[in-house]
Amino acid sequence: METLQQMGAGFGVAFTPENLLFVFIGVLAGTVIGILPGLGPMSAIALMIPIAFGMDPTTAIIMLAGVYYGAIFGGSTSSILLNAPGVAGTVATSFDGYPMARKGAAGKALAIAAIASFTGGTIGVVLLMLIAPALSSFAVSFGPADYFALMVLGLTAVVTLGGRNITKGLIAAVVGVMVSLVGIDSQTATLRFTFGMPELYEGVKFLIVALGLFALAEVFSMLARRGAGGADGAMTSLRLNRRDLGRIAGPTGRGSILGFFTGVLPGAGATVASFLSYSMEKRIAKDGDTFGSGNPKGVAAPEAGNNAAAVGSFVPMLTLGVPGSGTTAILLGALLVLGVTPGPMMLSDRPEMFWGLVASMYVGNIVLLVLNLPLIPLFAKVLKTPRAVLIPLVVVFCVVGVYGLSFSVFDLWLLLGFGVVGYLMRQNGFPAAPMILGLILGSMMERSMRQALQISYGDWTTFVTSPYSAALLGLTAIVLVWPLVKRLRSGPKAPAAGASPDGAQKEEDTASTP
Predict the structure, then answer these.
(1) Where is there biased composition of kind Basic and acidic residues (predicted)?
(2) Which of 147, 161, 136 is nearest to 314 (CA)?
């Protein structure tokens, strides 16, 4: 009853004209930022902090939070239409969203993404409202060994994301981890994989790899096919029937819950949540073998997961003062600048800010849905653009996004290099998804492993003596062994006619999918 009263007071704060206006401004800015790769929610929030200086702290955090979850919501558009993820958290959405667009179902894919994003965000807000204090105490009990085990479990997604050929998926993941280690070692200041190039001292930026492996590689594939037109089929309606809604209901619900609890863990974030949601759904779905070729479930699960995780990352920030992601770290800094100290006392000292922010997230998710659904037909027309116009636009899109990061020509050469690598991977049946996942998790795994070993004075048993770590590693072993057991039970199968010996798919529709 007390929670409902506090939530009612929060809606009173959120529904003031000023706060409603800045909710709209925040989510609109976030949506645009999410569609355009290069800036990202972290940079956008950092740029908007000076604007927030003269504002009421509650209004300021409501606006900045809207930029964050608005960017996650809008990032699916470029992932689905152009295979160019706007933000890291929407990479997994492109695995099935882009194949759906190529088959002429861009409208339906965008509608599924919008509905799943809205559902994931709403479920995340409900969970935030109900169990934030309890979850915050659980999140703080996670140690470095537990985080390492969590990242290892996330990396085992290569088993499912790698398709039929597990070996190629593992090779791609190892390459991704190696790329993540490029640069100066933060603990020993040792140069790793830099080849004497100062431009690599700070490492390889995620956006360069993502746009190269997905967007630029797709440009090369288009040029190789030399076809006309943007889409492979007729444009379908964005309307979803009962069967469509029934198919995505389960993945959306499961992805929302998994995503929220992943987001609560500091450091995991929306990107890890989206991959975990996609991987889990592919494993439990009866039609899991069709993931990667345009399955609507493969759009719903990661979109629900990343939006729920974006909300979940506010739990440790607001209740413990510990940022749950890079973006919430910037939000934490903004709150400190505004004279607000997040932590256990925030619920009692600044209840209007806490509950006003929670209520504004309800409002913001509704605004995002109303804002995005009517624009889907307009977005979908991108695929009707003639290929002679679309290819240069995608190239400019990539170049501007990458060059805007550091104004470095070297980064453009890296972009071209990863584009070539992505194209060769497609031609030879290597999936891009495990490489991206390895890039994201590699440095996080290394940091957690080193911290755990420093705390235990080099004792490796720390990874199995912690109950959370032991449970996660045990689950990882099951995930790795189960496909082998399943294959042994089913026995050897004769290769289908026309299939290549290594199981790589050569069809045009699947050549461009991870």
Answers:
(1) 504-514
(2) 136
Which residues does residue 192 pair with via DSSP β-bridges, in sequence order? 183
pLDDT above 90 (res 255): yes
Structure tokens that stand for 362 in this block: 């309800």
Task: Please report, as a single letter, which amino acid is at residue 78.
Answer: S
Split at pLDDT 50, 70, 90, the class of 37 is low
Rounded distance, CA 92 to CA 274, Å? 6
Per-residue confidence band for 241, with pLDDT thresholds at 50, 70 and 90:
confident
**Per-domain boundaries in the chain:** 2-491+506-511
Alpha helices in 38-105 (DSSP H): 40-52, 57-74, 76-82, 91-102
Given a contact cutoff of 8 angstroms between Cβ atoms, the answer to whether 394 and 215 are in contact is yes
In sequence order, what are the beta bridge partners of 191? 184
Residue 237 reports pLDDT greater than 80: no
Q: What pTM did the predictor assign?
A: 0.71
Q: What is the number of other CB atoms lying within 10 angstroms of the CB of residue 408?
A: 14
| Residue given tokens 């929306």 in the structure block | 270
- How far, in Å, CA of 66 to CA of 174, rounded? 36
The values of phi and psi at residue 324, to 5°, are -85, -10
**The pLDDT of residue 162:** 53
Q: Residues with Cβ < 8 Å from 501, sequence gap 6 or more?
A: 495
Structure tokens at 211: 């746009």
For residue 226 the two structure tokens come to: 């030399």
The owner of tokens 């989206």 is 274
- Answer yes or no: is pLDDT of 307 > 60: yes
CA-to-CA separations, 53 to 64, 70, 334, 355, 462, in angstroms, rounded:
12, 21, 9, 21, 45
Separation of alpha carbons 309 and 256, rounded Å: 8
CA distance 259 to 205: 24
Confidence at residue 502, expressed as pLDDT on a 0 to 100 scale: 41
